[in-house]
Amino acid sequence: MKKLLLVNTNTAKAPYPIPPLGICLIASCLQGSFDVRIYDGMFDEGLSLEAELRAFKPDFIGFGIRNVDNMVPDHRIYFVEDAYLKFIEPARRYTDVPFILGGSGFTIFPREIMDYTGADYGITGEGEETLMLLLQKLGRGDDVSNIPNVFTKSGQGPVLPVPGEDYNLRPYSLIDNKINFKPYTGRGVYSIQTKRGCALQCLYCSYPMLEGKQYRLRDPSSIADEIEQASERIGLGVTFEFVDSTFNEPKDHAEAICRELIRRKIKVRMRTMGVNPRRTSRELFALMTEAGFAQIDVTPDSASPSVIRNLRKGFTMDDIRRTANLIREFDIPSMWFFLFGGPGENRETFNETLDFIDHYINPDDLVYMSGGLRIYPGTPLYTTAMDEGVISASDNLLDPSVFYFSKNAPQAQLREWTLEACSLRLNCLPSAETTPSAEMLGEAVLMRNAGGLTEPMFRTLMRIRREWKANGRLTSTGIY
Predict the structure, then answer these.
(1) Is residue 399 part of a domain?
(2) How many CA atoms lie within 13 A of 257 on its CB side?
(3) Which stretches does DSSP call E strand in 50-142?
(4) Sign of torsion over alpha carbons 242, 243, 247, 249
(5) Which of 173, 218, 284, 379 is most enclosed, with most CB atoms within 10 A?
(6) Does the pLDDT of residue 259 top 80, yes or no?
(7) Is 379 helix (H, G, I), strand (E, B) or coil?
């Protein structure tokens, strides 16, 4: 049986380490047909990769490129460079077996990343069936140039749309069985995907390009099965995170998931990213609270009516206000994400969002303030940026410095506004400061242990911020 080594090149640990869901799904689909092993570089960061190669002697190596960069113009981190220097280049010094790239980051910039890394092959989009076919053909010595969505050094196969198969037919990721999950417990999460695809039309977003524009839903019973089985294997100490682009789209599906978890009396901590204000209700938050959600992320991007329209968010200020009021009513710990600098942003629209933060968001909840929109090919923002002359057709968009800023909210000005806003609001955090100091984090751990606190870590850190502010010890806006 041919051997396949899958390498997780993601080493980003802020705000918390994310286990390699995509690679684990690939491994679950290919096991039985190939001898599959995963090298998780999250914590080892390539230090034992050579030893793994010597021991396993793979016939093929797949590298997952999850993100291109951190999308923070004031503090850029280039993940593609990290993946090359820590994993791909060292592995090539040891072996000449075929190198295959994949993942969401690769899918956005396939040719550019192929050229940058010198990889042999790459797969865009969902890779389970495509990788199987590529490996089978490579093993037989067959021509692979016409495999859909496969890139080679010299060309690419035909581009096919995202598959429309029943998502329930895919096996579970079984993350904790595929990698050493112990380092992820505590602050880490167990990633759960409830669907693929996104029917929303946000100006800057690449999700529809990555997963398709129609929802492919997992059955709530399948989701509950995975959580129930994983919690029994892992035990206490892990939070299950729903990692869909938007959890509550469609709303009925999110509610059905909660009802199934409640029906089975599954007692685990959960959190979710991507709560869309358009699809919130008292019933939804009541179900999420009863099911065990300990934290949610809310992503309105703006609280200025004109900017919301320009970003094509699909909801209104009434939706955002309703969402904030419900969050406070149910006291659900929340992280809010605002993205400034899009088309039409100016000082007035910036202040409209600040006014919303001051009047509607719980002071105990964290507000994450980011400036500048990363420009990705194939998105409506790309067209807008081209039309306005922000970029040209010859620009290399893989460069992590390519952002869109409104002409009335340029980068330097927006940075000044954001820092000023955060200095006056203890629960507001600039995007460039995502990691607490070692001293603050150590004090937070002691406080949680001494008081038996189970609240999200960001709330504990904000308790300490308030104490340090009162005592004159606070010197930085960074809390998380």
Answers:
(1) yes
(2) 30
(3) 60-64, 99-102, 121-123
(4) negative
(5) 173
(6) yes
(7) coil
pLDDT in tens, 426-445: 899 998 776 777 788 888 88
- Residues 38/8, Cβ–Cβ less than 8 Å: yes
Structural domain containing residue 451 = 435-480
CA 91 to centroid of chain Cα atoms? 26
Question: Rounded to whole angstroms, how far apart are CA atoms 71 and 209?
Answer: 18
Is residue 315 within 8 Å of residue 307, measured between CB atoms? no
Q: Same domain for 390 and 461?
A: no
176 within domain boundaries? no
Among the listed residues 292, 253, 290, 250, the one whose alpha carbon sits nearest the alpha carbon of residue 271: 292
Between the CA of residue 133 and those of 143, 166, 360, what are the distances in Å?
A: 11, 19, 52
Q: Is residue 316 part of a domain?
A: yes
Backbone angles phi, psi at 287, to 5 degrees: -65, -45
pLDDT per residue as tens digits for the range 404-430: 999 999 999 999 999 999 989 989 999
CATH code of the domain covering residue 241: 3.80.30.20
Work out how many domains the chain is built from and give that number.
3
Q: What is the pTM assigned to this prediction?
A: 0.92
Q: DSSP per residue over 426-479, as a string? A: TTEEETT--S--HHHHHHHHHHHHHHT--S-HHHHHHHHHHHHHHTT----S--
Q: Say which CATH number the domain at 97 has.
A: 3.40.50.2300
Residue 395 lies in a domain: yes
Q: What single-letter DSSP state applies at residue 177?
A: H
